[in-house]
Each structure stands twice: as structure tokens, then as C-alpha cells.
Amino acid sequence: MSFALGVLPAALLLLGFPIFLVLLTAVSVALTFFMNVPLAALHQNVYGGIDAFPLLAVPFFIYAGELMGRGSVAARLGEVMQAGIGGARGSLGLTTVGTATIFGAISGVSAAAVATIGKLMLAPMRKGGYPDQFSAGLITAVGAIDIIIPPSIPMIVYGAVAQESVPRLYAAGVLPGLLIAGLLACYVVWFARRHGIGGSQPFELPRFARALARGFWALGAPVIILGGIYGGVFSPTEAAAVACVYAAVVTRLIYRELSLKDILAAAQSTVFFTAQILIIVACASAFAWLLTVNQVPSAIVAWIQSLQLSQISVLVAINVLLLAVGCVLDPLSAILLLTPLLVPVIKALGVDPIHFGIIMTVNLAIGLFHPPLGINIFVAQTVLKLPVTTIYRGIIPFVALYLVALALITYVPEISLWGVRLFLAKS
Amino acid sequence: MGKAVYGIVDWLMQAITRLLTGLLVFAVLLTFANVVARYLFSTSIPAADEIEIYAMIWMTFLGAAVVTRRDNHLRMDVLLTALPWRARYVLQLVEQVILAGVTGFAVVPSARYVAGTYALGIRSDGGQIPIWIPHGALLLGLGLIALLALLRVIALALHPEEARPAGVPAQGAVA
User: Fold this and answer.
1) Interval A326-350: pLDDT, tens
2) Bridge partner residues of A397 (DSSP)
3) Does residue A229 contact residue A236 with C-beta atoms inside 8 Å?
4) Which ipTM was obtained for this model?
5) A residues 223-282 near B, CB within 8 Å?
6) Residue-wise pLDDT tens digits, B31-82
7) N or C, which end of chain B has less CB nearby within 10 Å?
8) C-beta separation of A344 from A297 below 8 A
């Protein structure tokens, strides 16, 4: 059985086979050669993996992000941020961080944020005196905030696999996301001071009011999504659907930027993204069932307990594992493969699974831009048209900042759990 | 011959893509309408949740067939892109053979399950929808993937130059 559950999937994964095929092959081999279970279990578990209402939020949030990303929503958010920050030192860098953070509250797709913010901010930052290396590093790194600030697609998938509440995960993600944005902002200001980079136009109330008026509808999206969820008005799935309709109305009827054809094109690319993700969710569900009936998670828990390690040392080991995995595997696949194994371990150690969901998301967010293979590096390379070595060099300080944030988030659970109490006090 | 077959396949994939795009828009509007109905009319659309989930299931399994045709599934391709051309070619051939074999194998219990639910006339709790309809998406999706993989095996065997070039990672949903 260890062949079907360990050796075979590991080998196929390393050989670059599609992840859903790796999982489906492992389950098929186990059922055929090592278990006495009717083959109908294969169909039932693959199908059952996505027969869940909360997962509908995945395509809906992707669609809302696609629609918002195709129009000028990010540009308008950027204008509001820039006008609000005014002439403070490092204002353009701060605008980049702020815009990415607010954009993160609309879209849960990190690569889209890097592409959108990159197109928007590189030229002004260059004009403002920022070296390309710094700008590229900042733009590539800020995108990772988008999967930590709700709505977050990885958190929906973690919630489905770990059977945890998505609204609680979303509430837990707010402060860690803001903590990372704050650390990045501090570094931007320090860098600007050190290199004598000034601010842009000073704050002027009329300019800020104009930007606010232009960005009013764009700013409405995060208010509807987060306000709707935490106000108890919608479930995350419903909030996602409302966000889609809102995005379509704003970009089509108010801003008049997208045609009906564009709206359908966004839906089409959402369908492809959805199929890419949910086919893995379906097969991972069958694989997780296989692990459970063969008592693999409980064996791992027993083994770790026998080592008599402290909670902190296990979390250090898990962080190292997740960082390594995040460098070679996308966050959703990593969550689907590792959650069934790790959640029983951390529960046995007394770690809150909501807190762990945030630890996992932050770890895998770092993998999105960690050299040499973070996908956001290649997105940035395409959009910014800069040599990959420039991006690599620019990213290093930001990786260090994210690691500081990760350490704080891991060892101070209150950073995550305080948000749950604050936003979901009634539940 | 090959071109004609792929012409039909691509026509089919395009038709499926259009159908699934329509299903997504429909699911969004249905969810939205359900929220509006709840707050404005204190009622809800019967079986809306069920229909939306079934739409997502169709999007997933039939969409996976389209993604297979586009050779765009998520994978960890660090090692694959570093390999010399011949090794990559052999691996791709092996991958497609396994893909055809495993999905073809999974079609069998799936077909039995769907046939069973059809024969028994089992319906969903909320909307009384025959459950062979959503379950059929898995059967159809796996069947199409098996067929596409088989075609790819033939194409790769006859035209090795069609092997995926190095440095072409699967794009898309990396969140």
C-alpha cells in the first residue's frame, strides 16, 4: 500500500505529470491491487469531492476578479491611494502596496494582481526615481497579499478540505494580510529615505475628492464582499455571486469599459481556471479518503507524538516543509495534497486549524514569488519586461520581510484569531 | 485524416466551452436572484443551490476535458523542463498512455454508477432532478479525457516533433 500512497504519487509528481492524474492513478492502483473495496468508491469519492456549495465561491470569485481586472478598477484604486497618500516619502511604493491590498479584497488571484499592479505602477515608479530592481521586487511580492487578504481562493479550498468555516478563515486572514502590507510599507519608506526618493504630488483635498469620486464604484466591491460576509448578509458563495454581478454592472454600465463579449470572455477563462482547480479538488478528495481509510494521518500523528516534540518545533518543521513545497508547487495543489496529512497533526498538538489555515496560506503565498520558480516572478517578467535576474535580486528583501511576518503569524496565534473574534463575534 | 479528426475534436471542445460559459453565467445569475428573492420577497428559488452545484460539477469535469485538449493541467514541471528533448518526449508519451489508461479505467465504475442511478430513477432531494445528470458529467468528462489522451498518444507516436517544448509551464490557476 505504501507504493500506491507514497512512492507512486511522489514519482509521478516529480516526473511532471498533471496533479489530478497523479492522484487519480494512486487511487486507481490502490483500489485495484491493494484494497478490497467496490470500484464504485472511486466514482463516489471523486464526485463527492466537489459536490459542495462552498466550493461554488471558487469560480464566482475568480469571475469577479477577472471582470474587475479587465477594466480600470485597479487604476482607479491606485488613483485614490496616490491622492490619499500625497507627497509622503516613498508615496509611489506605498501606493503600490495599498492598491495591491485593496485589490486583494476584490480578487483572490495573486498572479492577476501582479499583472494588474505591474502594468499600473512600474512606469510611475521608474519616473519617480525608484531603481527597477526595487520596483520589480515590490510588484512581484505584493501580489502574494491577495491570497491572504479575503476573499482568498486557497482559503476556500483549505476550508473545504479541512472542513473549516470559510468566513472564519477569511476573518483570520485580515490582520495577517494587513501586517504584511504594513511591513512592506515600512520597508518602502525606509528605502525611499535611504535613497533620497521623494514623494509624488502633495496631498490636496480637491484632488483626493476627485479620485475618490472616480474610484467610488471600484471601492464599493470590497465593501460589498467583506461587509456582506461579516455583516451576515451573504454566505461567501453568495457574496462572490453578488460581486460578479456588481463587477459586470460597474465595468459594463457605469465605466462603459467592457462589452458583452468581454464579459463572456472573462466567463470563458474562468471556466478554464475552475476546471484546472476543481478537477484536482475532486481527485484529491478521493486520495484523502484513501489516506483516511488506511489510517495514514493517524499513523503520522502517532509518530510525531512518539518523537515528543514541542508545538513550536513541529510548526518550524511544517513551515520549512511548506516553504519548500511552495517553491515548486502551486498553493492550491499543495493545500490539497498536504492538508489531509497536516491538519490531524496540528490538531493533536493543540493548534487551532483556522490559525493553521493562515500559516499554510502565508507559507504558500511566499512560494508564489520565491526564487527561482515562483509563478509571480514569471508573470512579472512578462508584464514588466525586465530580466529575470533583476527581479530575483529585487525580491530578496521582500522574501525576508514575508519570513518575518510568517514567524510572527505562526508563533502569535492572536494575530489570526483576533480577527475571528472581531468580525464574527456573534457566531 | 488526422486534421479532420482534430477538426471535429476542436469543434466539440468549442461547443463544450460555450455550454460551460453559459452555465457559469447562469449559476451566477441564479445565486444572485436567490439573494434578491430572499431579501425582497422573503422567499427562495426552489433547488437553486442544487442546480448551481450541478452546474459547477459539469464545469469541472467537462472543463477538465477542454483543459486536457489545451494541455493546460496544473503540474509540477521543474524536472520535466530541465530534461533533454528525447526524455521529455518519452515522458509525455508515457503520461498520455497512463492518462488514457487511468481515465479509461475510471470510466467503467462511473458508467455502472450512472446506469444504476438511471435505472433506479433516483432523484435529488430538493429539485427532484435525476441524479444521473450531474453524475453523468464525471462519466462524460473522464470518457472525453481518455479519448483525447488516446488521440494524443497516436499523434505523438506518429509525429514526435509535436512533443511539448521545454519551458512551457501550465499556465493559469495558481491563485
Assistant:
1) 887 788 888 988 999 999 999 999 9
2) none
3) yes
4) 0.93
5) 234, 237-238, 241-242, 244-245, 264, 267-268, 270-282
6) 999 999 999 999 999 899 999 999 999 999 999 999 999 998 988 777 777 8
7) N
8) yes
